[in-house]
Design brief:
alpha+beta; 18 strands; 23% strand
Length: 409
């Protein structure tokens, strides 16, 4: 077998994995390779490239369903959906530039396998909430399919959701089926200027608790807001707390007025209309504030929404030079830190634990750092045992992306 295998049929994919199982040869699984920097480096002598499974095989706009090969570019899918005024509602970002790759090169398989969702996750859910089914080959070399084309097909064990966040360690997909939804007519954003982290957290909670159907809420400290392509943020000279509303034009305009009244006592407010709003939320989905700072090690921290600002403040106090912003109403902290050999893992995870618990994932660091420390939140013994049994059930010889998540998993 060659070092790089590029099957083009399901049978060829099965044969490649069956060969790896028989020879006990580990495989690095890639579609377009833009997510290789996520997780621990895979130690494998052979690469299984699924980019040959490319293209949209089914798109029923009236039924809000699409199927595509794993190597299909996210940009191709988004372009096809835009023609029908539809979208991937969970708003996956293009993380290629964040991880040192070119823009527009990421695949749909990478989005689902890494469970990547953008700022609209608050309203629409994660990537795993939108996958309906898949076809593929397990680490046993067995062809199988899971789920279907509608939600009611998903009964028993929800294997499509298990595929999400597996980072290619359980199954190599040959086709993915997922939900799509109508795109909003209008997208506006209410900005509140000059709030610190604690006040911004209160403002976002107030907006989310209102009857105004907020789609997203984020807080950008002044140094992050100053790097935006949106002039209102770039020239604000202050922190910006952003509240997004979407829907029919008259409804959006009314809700923005109400939100500005609701939040006006906290600080000066501004309003972005559709073009600037889309630019801002695309920047956050793509984690653009840290694309321009490639020297920083980057953490993605998930905690309770009211705890995010405090976690960021605690880490920044312990590690000068750290910069951050908050998404998901404060429940998601993007934190960039000056590089050190352990990526400040002890400081980060201690702050998360002190907040009441959560997850901290190292998204970007050099290969030697990613090899030396846990990239993902360390698992409790019981959960680690379950993960091990799941891995053994799907990939008993450990040939699919071995060690990508944790040693041996």
């Amino acid at each position: 077998m060659s070092d790089v295998m590029r099957p083009e049929t399901l049978e060829q994919l099965r044969d490649a994995i069956a060969w790896a199982v028989g020879e006990e040869q580990p495989l690095e699984i890639v579609a377009r390779g833009t997510k290789r920097g996520l997780g621990r480096p895979v130690q494998a002598g052979h690469t299984l490239d699924t980019s040959g499974f490319s293209g949209i095989s089914l798109y029923e706009a009236d039924e809000l369903v699409m199927s595509a090969g794993p190597g299909t570019l996210l940009a191709e899918i988004e372009a096809a959906l835009a023609e029908k005024n539809q979208q991937l509602a969970f708003e996956p970002g293009d993380w290629g530039p964040l991880l040192g790759q070119k823009a527009g090169a990421g695949s749909i398989a990478g989005i689902f396998a890494c469970n990547i969702a953008g700022p609209r996750r608050l309203k629409a859910g994660a990537a795993r909430d939108h996958i309906l089914g898949f076809k593929g080959v397990s680490g046993r070399g067995e062809i199988y399919k899971a789920g279907g084309r509608v939600v009611k097909n998903v009964t028993g064990y929800d294997l499509p959701k298990l595929f999400c966040s597996s980072h290619g360690t359980l199954t190599v997909a040959s086709e993915l089926t997922f939900k799509v939804l109508p795109a909003p007519e209008k997208t506006y954003t209410v900005l509140v200027l000059g709030l610190d982290g604690a006040a911004a957290t209160r403002a976002m909670a107030l907006a989310m608790g209102s009857p105004h159907e907020v789609a997203s809420a984020a807080h950008l400290p002044a140094d992050i807001a100053g790097g935006s392509a949106v002039s209102y943020l770039r020239e604000a000279g202050a922190s910006v707390t952003a509240i997004r509303v979407e829907g029919p034009g008259p409804s959006v305009e009314h809700r923005c007025r109400e939100l500005r009244t609701l939040l006006g006592s906290l600080g000066p407010t501004e309003e972005l209309h559709t073009h600037n709003s889309k630019t801002l939320w695309r920047e956050l989905a793509d984690v653009a504030p840290f694309v321009a700072r490639p020297e920083l090690q980057l953490w993605r921290i998930s905690v309770a929404p009211m705890a995010g600002a405090g976690v960021a403040a605690a880490i920044t106090a312990a590690a000068p030079g750290a910069v951050h912003y908050l998404d998901w109403q404060g429940g998601l902290v993007w934190l960039g830190m000056p590089p050190v050999p352990d990526a400040h893992a002890g400081t980060v995870r201690a702050a998360v634990a002190a907040s009441g618990g959560g997850h901290a994932t190292l998204i970007r660091a050099s290969a030697d750092v990613r090899t030396a420390i846990d990239m993902f939140q360390p698992q409790e013994p019981g959960l680690a045992a379950i993960s091990r049994r799941v891995k053994d059930a799907f990939d008993p010889r450990g040939v699919l992306n071995p060690g990508r998540l944790y040693p041996g998993v």
